[in-house]
Recover the amino acids of this structure.
């Protein structure tokens, strides 16, 4: 899938801090470092999975890339232009090529708008189509996502969760985007419906040549849909590699623990599994630990981990990791 | 055991016979649970799986008699706990069962703890009520319980309020509370659904350890087929208010008979599945439980449905030893591998 290796999106040292303000004068007393310097590339036509536990900054990363949040620092190059420095009508133009679908299909669609209004809105806002042309395009889009175009005049409450997620997908496809950021698109859905939506996403990718950034906490689904996977912990990417390498040879202790915590729906495998159980909870991103972020829960931490932050380096071809204990080996691609 | 006046009785720890619960709403009658029967033995762990609206939570709330009446009503059936029909107990008698002998842990630990009372107070409440402990005894015991579920500096944390606990710690506190009176049965209703996967693993490990130590039976309700695989001995698969398949965990995962179970397992990405391979998806949506439907509830989504499935509801019958299936066409269903 990644044969062409054309970089469509390049994220460089992206940071997003949310200020903490206290007192009558709303003094700035600190920052929640939701995203703290992440860098990665997304290749055209691939699916990059972004996984991590709640509060690790995966959603904020997605939203900052698409400029729903203003980045604190860093660059986002999309098809050659720096998104983080763009504004006004240029930004609006770029957003046509980049869309997002959201987690909660109940909250992300306006209950007062019909399906025609919801799916057709981007066409009007960007003055692509109106009137009958718009209606035809909406019908086409609904068919594309497996909904009956006759439902066009209905309202979101008349649809189930899976159908609503299809409506959100139709809307995101309205402007023929190149990249779609999928923010936990299936986690609010029932198991049997999740498979329907994932199959649809894969079909559309093959048909329309889409690139996905797939943000999720469900590691088994990410494994199924992604070509490459980035693992986030407390605002940083700790490991990024091909999905097969990640699942068969995870290097970072956090990735190892995360994978071992995922229950496998197979009692024969579960019987023999040895789990790595992490102690404690995720530290607060407002007050991250000194040194390596993961040192409070890491089962193998050494002294260095409490003093120095590990660099995110390529340790094998296409396999990057941020851990003091993981040393580069084999031929490196510079 | 017939001192309680029940005509029939049961030798099992818990036995449900034809439990039927409905809700009378403005939109019509919701058939939440329809004729659920099964037995649970001492020390067993039973997994109850199904998607939202399949009646898995309502059946547990019916056992605990926590269904809001109205709009809910337990229409039919018996729930025998150590031979006594819980549905025939007075409210006062039921209060001595609930919490003391059958305890429940809920999905969202933030909404099931009272935010204005300290965690310690809430644990001590049950100890004082059910075991008649003094304040001091209860406080000591509450500290022990919090330590048992793995909360560091437990004695000091008794004075914390729920918001000072993380999600995982709150669920630990709920488990401590549920186990405070050494119940014979712990009903856990999606206890790890709102937790992160590393915290879920902690809680599952904790429950396994406590089960081995205290020997209680567990009913673990979830939509996550993965959690059950490593935890339960038996599984009930529910769909539209009915048990459609029941068996040992290895039978259900290794040799599923019901088309719904086969589909549900097929819709999960298995580690060995190729990326290019499609997930199996069950077409359509789970049914609306308003109004009475004839026939098999899964028939509209089923690839094997025949004329008979639309008219007659299949009973839960023995397919193989310890394996029950409710399907007319189970012989034709293609099983994985």
């Amino acid at each position: 899938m990644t044969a062409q290796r054309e970089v469509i999106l390049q994220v460089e040292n992206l940071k997003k801090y949310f200020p903490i303000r206290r007192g009558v004068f709303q003094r700035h007393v600190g920052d929640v470092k939701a995203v703290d310097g992440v860098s990665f590339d997304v290749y055209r036509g691939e699916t990059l999975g972004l996984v991590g536990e709640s509060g690790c900054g995966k959603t904020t990363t997605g939203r900052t890339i698409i400029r729903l949040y203003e980045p604190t620092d860093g660059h986002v190059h999309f098809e050659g232009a720096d998104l983080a420095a763009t504004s006004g009508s240029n930004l609006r133009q770029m957003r046509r090529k980049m869309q997002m679908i959201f987690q909660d299909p109940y909250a992300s669609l306006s209950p007062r708008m019909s399906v025609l209004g919801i799916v057709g809105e981007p066409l009007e806002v960007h003055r692509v189509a109106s009137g009958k042309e718009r209606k035809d395009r909406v019908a086409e889009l609904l068919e594309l996502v497996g909904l009956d175009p006759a439902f066009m005049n209905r309202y979101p409450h008349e649809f189930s969760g899976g159908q609503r997620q299809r409506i959100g997908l139709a809307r995101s496809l309205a402007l023929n985007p190149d990249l779609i950021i999928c923010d936990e698109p299936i986690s609010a859905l029932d198991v049997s419906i999740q498979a329907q939506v994932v199959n649809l996403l894969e079909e559309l990718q093959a048909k329309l040549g889409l690139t996905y950034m797939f943000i999720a906490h469900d590691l088994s689904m990410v494994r199924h849909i992604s070509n490459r996977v980035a693992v986030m912990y407390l605002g940083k990417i700790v490991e990024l590699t091909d999905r097969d390498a990640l699942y068969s040879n995870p290097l970072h202790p956090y990735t190892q623990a995360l994978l071992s915590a995922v229950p496998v729906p197979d009692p024969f495998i579960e019987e023999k599994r040895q789990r790595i159980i992490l102690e404690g909870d995720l530290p607060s991103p407002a007050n991250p630990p000194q040194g390596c972020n993961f040192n409070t829960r890491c089962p193998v931490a050494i002294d260095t981990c409490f003093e120095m932050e590990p660099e995110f380096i390529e340790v094998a071809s296409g396999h990057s990791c941020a851990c003091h204990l993981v040393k580069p080996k084999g031929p490196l691609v510079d | 055991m017939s001192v309680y006046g029940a005509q029939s009785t049961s030798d099992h720890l818990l036995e449900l016979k034809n439990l039927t619960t409905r809700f009378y709403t403005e939109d019509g009658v919701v058939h939440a649970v329809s004729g659920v029967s099964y037995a649970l033995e001492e020390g067993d762990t039973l997994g109850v799986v199904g998607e939202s609206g399949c009646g898995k939570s309502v059946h547990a709330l019916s056992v605990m008699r926590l269904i809001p009446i109205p709009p809910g009503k337990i229409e039919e059936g018996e729930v025998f706990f150590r031979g006594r029909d819980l549905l025939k107990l007075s409210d006062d008698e039921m209060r001595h069962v609930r919490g003391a002998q059958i305890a429940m842990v809920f999905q969202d630990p933030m909404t099931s703890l009272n935010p204005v009372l300290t965690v310690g107070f809430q644990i001590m409440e049950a100890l004082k009520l059910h075991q008649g402990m003094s304040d001091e005894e209860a406080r000591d015991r509450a500290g022990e319980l919090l330590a048992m579920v793995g909360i560091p500096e437990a004695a000091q944390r008794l004075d914390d309020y729920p918001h000072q606990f993380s999600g995982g710690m709150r669920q630990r506190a709920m488990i401590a509370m549920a186990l405070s009176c050494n119940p014979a049965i712990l009903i856990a209703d999606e206890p790890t659904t709102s937790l992160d996967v590393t915290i879920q693993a902690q809680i599952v490990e904790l429950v396994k350890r406590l089960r081995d130590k205290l020997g209680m039976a567990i009913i673990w309700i979830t939509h996550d087929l993965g959690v059950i695989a490593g935890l339960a001995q038996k599984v009930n698969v529910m769909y539209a208010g009915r048990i459609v398949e029941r068996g040992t965990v290895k039978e259900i995962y290794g040799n599923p008979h019901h088309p719904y179970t086969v589909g549900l397992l097929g819709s999960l990405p298995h580690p060995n599945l190729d990326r290019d391979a499609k997930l199996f998806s069950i077409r359509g949506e789970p049914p609306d439980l308003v109004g009475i439907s004839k026939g098999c509830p899964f028939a509209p989504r089923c690839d094997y449905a025949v004329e008979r499935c639309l008219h007659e509801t299949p009973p839960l019958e023995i397919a193989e030893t310890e394996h029950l299936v409710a399907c007319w066409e189970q012989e034709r269903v293609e099983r994985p591998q």
Notes: The longest helix of chain A spans residues 191-208.
